[in-house]
Design goal:
By secondary structure, the chain is α+β, with helices and mostly antiparallel strands. The protein has five helices and five strands, in the order E-H-E-E-H-E-E-H-H-H.
């Protein structure tokens, strides 16, 4: 991606519950399909799956990310439980990942395996416009990105 595309208008993170069984091959296929689609849309992000629950972060042009999330919401393989948005131009957190599948063992090494999902779920329950809480969610996303980038992946 060129330097101009290193900035994004919106980021969304969501937690969803699988509606059908997912093994490693099925998750790999899903991540590969998403990577291919996202590359054409200039969307980047990552996908994490553990204990029947997905956490996904997407970033890109606001209109594109909004349409993509609407499509994801209609995917019958899972049910979205909670979402949180960050609007306003920011640096791209995952510039080289059209969709990176972050495996459980990688998240465990980072030490954030369930914190992000729990924060998004809690934010949905106490939805009162508490921006400081939403900012903390995006600090965790930043920590995930930084930790994995620092490990050279």
């Amino acid at each position: 991606m060129d330097a101009a595309s290193q900035r994004v208008e919106s980021s969304v993170a969501y937690v969803s519950q699988a509606a059908c069984p997912f093994d490693e091959q099925r998750i790999a296929n899903l991540a590969n399909e998403a990577a291919s689609n996202n590359a054409t849309l200039a969307v980047t992000g990552y996908l994490y799956f553990a204990n029947g629950r997905f956490v996904q972060c997407l970033e890109g042009d606001h209109a594109v990310v909004t349409r993509l999330l609407a499509r994801i919401e209609h995917d019958t393989r899972h049910d979205i439980i909670a979402t949180t948005w960050q609007s306003g131009e920011t640096e791209r957190r995952f510039p080289s990942w059209s969709m990176r599948w972050v495996r459980s063992n990688e998240m465990a090494k980072i030490g954030l395996e369930h914190i992000l999902a729990d924060q998004i779920l809690l934010d949905a329950r106490v939805r009162g416009g508490d921006l400081s809480f939403q900012e903390s969610i995006w600090r965790v996303v930043d920590s995930v990105a930084e930790s994995i980038h620092n490990r050279g992946e």
